[in-house]
């Protein structure tokens, strides 16, 4: 196998007067697409010896997975709703059936079944398809939805009278969010400004051609969003920057009403609300960095009364209101574990029951699943871990009974019971303890260092709670370990963990990632010669900056739509996201922020250093991390010619930030990526048990 692809595309397209390859930002110049297509060809040539492995990984992934999938049925007021994806389909079909009639969602020929939307059929008309939102009117007779058919996150709004009405396109190029008022006639949606910032909320009657602007956010650091309380009494307009928020309310039965501000924004104060008749519940961090819960009566919004005080050891993440009380999402800082807390309230809004829901294993993910009914006493919960596939539980709050509704089945030679998970703690450069999760085959995890893939993100307060992955089984069955670095900048240990990895503290994320890598070696879990790193989007920044700090730490790096041109991007307020990101990375117009960002931005710190093998992935229609960021990194690494292995780039010319939209296309992309990882870890020739048995036969 060639160690390096031909440098011909870079040499042929190089411009002497543009050593940083900024010309790649000129999307409309034909030469840009020509360059990317030439690089794709070079990448394909390098991957030719791995084509058999890629196909094997893809086929094995399909063999492990339930391909014909029927989604969990969810009852609303008049109908029960579910989705079905055929074994050979990329996209689901959404169905419903009247509540109270004989119902079998597996038999679509039965009387009463109605097809809401067939995404598989719609996908035949475009190379990309993403459903942004799907919303039903209060009487469930009208359906509105948004679709992106380019991958650039611009959506069109459609409307249909159910079950068989004509599909009407109402709007083009809007945001994804939708919300129906409780009058069965009014739809709220968002529009972008010139930088693709969701900046306005519009109201449109289903029978009228003209939309009315209901709310406009003029501050370029704020994005707007839409919601409706589970009580169905209020339409909620959210507007927020990265560290400040504000909420406006519209009565759901009177959508023509001027929005009412719940509480004026205060710089640095974030708050969110939910509602029970007569009372709002306010989750906020005013004077409470880990958030606290207060309540305000509808007629006295300015008077907040305490319910849950600020605690040093716990971050209060979310509140969901029901007729009987609240479900709170809390995160323990020490264990980095999420919990659900059930709080029943009486007619005076006083607490009559306060308890945490049980957790089946730790660490794990636990969340309130889709539970639309305000008065239900059966909660739907979603659970999964690194070794347990996703499952949906119905929890009866009166009896405490847990009923399994659905669990994702796993087929093949490596079953969840044959996996083991460990959590170790790394000591970072400043003495901070960083949790690191490791999953591997149970028969290997304690038998010596394993080739390891280390994953990280570490931005925006995003948590990396445990998740199960079927494609990951292809790495584990061949003897690799998978590890997650829960670095500062994420939300894994609560709000202080996020604050300690942003702005002037951003370098903590990179140091934590390297510390996570080192502790895996120290504990004998990872083979120091065979550790690959993976990061996507802001995680691509994490990995690339870490490699710049220590090029020898990893044998390979996979950078998926990586944010690597941080300084130049943040200097351009006309790009999507830029102004909204000032409170995450800093505004480079400020000298100190400029110095700081320049100090870690990967493209500003490239030297002729021994980078590991690199596989870069970009998307032509990506509006969050433009295709040119991975393309520039590729070109400059090729020119430096100092990497210890191949430098590869593949740009999907029909996708956006999330990659391919069809599941088979996406799974094939993952198979190619995993083939590269197995090659880098020295495992590309290792067979699974089933492969060996097949060969023996």
From TrEMBL:
The alphabetical list of record keywords is: Hydrolase, Protease, Serine protease
**The Peptidase S9A N-terminal domain, residue ranges:** 15-408
Q: Which GO terms describe its biological process?
A: proteolysis
Origin, by domain of life? Bacteria
Q: Which GO terms describe its molecular function?
A: serine-type endopeptidase activity
Family statement drawn from the similarity comment of this UniProt entry: Belongs to the peptidase S9A family.
The protein in question is named: Oligopeptidase B
* Organism annotation: Kushneria indalinina DSM 14324
